[in-house]
Design brief:
Blueprint lengths: L1 H8 L6 H26 L1 H12 E6 L6 E2 L5 E13 L6 H15 L3 H13 L5 E4 L4 H10 L6 E10 L7 H4 L2 E3 L2 H7 L9 E3 L2 H5 L1 H4 L4 E7 L5 E8 L7 E2 L4 H10 L6 E6 L6 E7 L14 H8 L21 H11 L7 E3 L3 E4 L2 E4 L8 E3 H7 L2 H11 L1 H10 L18 E2 L2 H5 L14 H8 L5 E2 L2 H12 L3 E2 L12 H4 L1 E2 L4 H17 L16 E7 L8 E8 L6 E7 L6 H19 L1
Parallel strand pairs: 2-10
Antiparallel strand pairs: 1-8, 2-3, 3-4, 3-5, 6-7, 8-9, 11-12, 11-23, 13-16, 14-15, 17-18, 19-20, 21-22, 22-23
């Protein structure tokens, strides 16, 4: 009776063992499930985390491949950059004042400049402060001789891109920059490291995969306190491959030199047989080593990126009014149309009226009755006005396409290239690129401008080079290329143009007369033993309202041509024979001497 009464009074006491056992079993099951999750289901992830905690990778930066000219001369390579750094966490205030005085005398540099860098570093809570950047070898040696009394200071080394000739062929070679955070998310899958370098423009960009190499490093094991215990193996970094260009440094240097006194312009030197670029210069230019600097002064940055002269702009691949160097296209259009055959002779005049405007001859007199060869020799405007008016806009447009106009040239650095403009009747109907369709019709004045390469025609020096190469080599459109890698696809890219070879020969004869007794005769002045040269001068009004452009294109030898030069002086009034021709002549001199 007592037990019964007790149980009735305290019924929960009988359940306590059951509750305890239930909690114990539940806890055990939780632990069991957690162990299963850790050991079986998620074993790989936690093993990886464990390895990452005890294994460290000391990465080794690869050396980028070199960029070489056709003769193996170095245009771009890599070098070690030495900097003097201090780790302020290991240096007391008293020690710093002693060190500052010591290194000031050691490097003959004001102690105030060191103090400013040190103070700025402390303000930014930097654990490593650069006191002196890009040390010379003798400065490194001086420090090494005294480093035992400069605790907390050391020489840091970094691999940077180096351009021995600074601004030579800068638009061709291109530059590198560190990858951005957004790029890293994508490029890390390709083996790039945070703040790794990548080619931004030119050959550095186009052949990035060829040049960059592969990172290496050493895997080391550390204990729980982070102390090194042993090496797990070394994978050497893999140096990038060199890239050899078709550029001839001798010709490149003279191309850069002849542009120095010009406001802007470009020189292209090309082999018309296969499109190999021997030199490509653009003015203004820039020092490629600017991009290898850790600290870029604002003044230098503005001069490069915010200058109205646009030094990063490659004039060799940008479009301009071509003027009279375009007349070969109008000539071929007249011949191919059948309306103005080989035996055509036309009367030239002081001016011819189209629409509301009288379009003048450049000598304001005319040249009498002449044919194609003499029209090219004296660069008659009124002869080509008549040809252009007779065949119409679309015949000229279609002929230009055969010569590679209205399209990219195929050169590797196409990210810098402009396709230009050659007008057509459809282009006018569509609004000319700026107006309302149907409201900007083709007018008579347009054909006169088009016939002599003005206003409704804008082409690039590289396109002009391709067109004249097709005349020089007997009718093959070649693809310009900068590297010997590009020569492997030469056969597929040498295209026979659908133009009568007799018509090409007629134009070629006219270009020979230009240099023998026409507007380009001065190409031979001061040059001895030069093979026969053919060419064409050009003076073009700037469609954007600036001063005239000067052009000269030539190839030599005239019959079996090995060299073609396009010389362009931007906004340099006075005529192609006065400004552009002398630039080409200097290039011819160097080529002839070396040959």
């Amino acid at each position: 009776m007592k037990n019964s009464n007790f149980n009735n009074k305290f019924p929960n006491l009988n359940r306590q063992p059951l509750i305890f056992y239930s909690i114990t079993v539940f806890t055990f099951l939780l632990i069991l499930f957690r162990l299963i999750f850790l050991q079986l289901l998620n074993n790989d992830n936690y093993k990886k985390m464990s390895d990452e905690n005890r294994i460290r990778l000391i990465a080794t930066q690869p050396i980028r491949g070199r960029i070489l000219d056709k003769n193996g001369l170095v245009l771009a390579d890599s070098r070690f950059k030495y900097s003097l750094i201090i780790k302020p966490q290991y240096v007391s205030e008293n020690s710093w004042h002693i060190y500052k005085s010591k290194i000031s005398k050691l490097f003959n540099i004001s102690a105030d400049s060191f103090q400013k860098k040190y103070s700025d570093g402390l303000k930014n809570n930097n654990f490593s402060i650069t006191l002196l950047d890009d040390l010379k070898v003798d400065q490194v040696i001086k420090f090494k001789e005294n480093e035992n009394i400069l605790n907390g200071m050391e020489i840091s080394t970094k691999m940077i891109r180096n351009y021995p000739f600074k601004n030579v062929a800068s638009h061709v070679i291109g530059y590198t920059q560190p990858i951005t955070d957004s790029e890293f998310n994508i490029l890390s899958k390709k083996g790039y490291k945070f703040n790794d370098l990548i080619g931004r423009t030119g050959v550095e960009f186009v052949y990035e995969d060829h040049i960059r190499g592969e990172w290496g490093g050493e895997m080391i094991e550390v204990n729980s306190s982070g102390t090194f215990t042993k090496s797990l193996g070394i994978k050497p970094s893999k140096q990038g491959k060199d890239i050899q260009l078709t550029i001839d440094l001798n010709l490149q240097l003279v191309a850069e030199e002849v542009l120095k006194d010009k406001n802007g312009g470009a020189i292209i030197v090309m082999d018309p047989r296969d499109g190999a670029i021997k030199a490509m210069a653009s003015k203004p230019t820039f020092d490629l080593n600017f991009f290898s600097k850790d600290f870029k002064p604002q003044k230098e940055y503005d001069a490069l990126f915010n200058s109205p002269s646009k030094p990063l702009f490659n004039r060799a691949l940008n479009a301009y009014d071509p003027g009279s160097v375009w007349k070969i296209v109008t000539a071929i259009a007249g011949l191919e149309s059948g309306k103005f055959p080989v035996e055509t002779f036309l009367e030239t005049k002081s001016c011819i009226t189209y629409g509301s405007q009288c379009f003048r001859e450049h000598n304001d007199l005319g040249f009498g009755t002449i044919g194609y060869e003499d029209a090219l020799r004296v660069s008659s405007n009124t002869f080509f006005y008549q040809i252009g008016h007779g065949v119409g806009v679309d015949e000229i447009y279609n002929t230009s396409k055969k010569f590679g106009f209205t399209a990219l040239s195929g050169i590797e650095i196409s990210e810098q290239e402009n396709i230009g403009l050659v007008a057509s009747s459809q282009w006018a109907k569509d609004g000319r690129g700026w107006g309302e369709p149907g409201k900007t019709p083709w007018v008579p004045e347009d054909i006169a401008s088009m016939a002599i390469g003005q206003f409704v025609v804008q082409v690039t020096p590289i396109q002009i080079a391709r067109a004249y190469a097709a005349i020089a080599n007997g009718g093959y459109l070649v693809t310009p290329h900068l590297s010997k890698e590009g020569q492997s696809i030469l056969n597929q890219n040498r295209i026979k143009i659908d133009i009568d070879p007799n018509h090409i020969q007629l134009v070629k004869n006219g270009l020979r007369k230009v240099v023998e007794s026409g507007t380009g005769v001065s190409i031979n002045y001061g040059v001895s033993n030069l093979p026969p040269v053919s060419g064409k001068t050009g003076t073009a009004e700037d469609g954007e309202g600036g001063s005239d452009h000067a052009w000269f294109v030539c190839f030599t030898p005239s019959d079996k041509s090995e060299l073609l030069i396009v010389a362009f002086a931007q906004n340099t009034p006075g005529g192609g024979s006065v400004h552009a021709l002398p630039m080409a002549r200097e290039v011819l001199k160097v080529w002839n001497e070396n040959k």
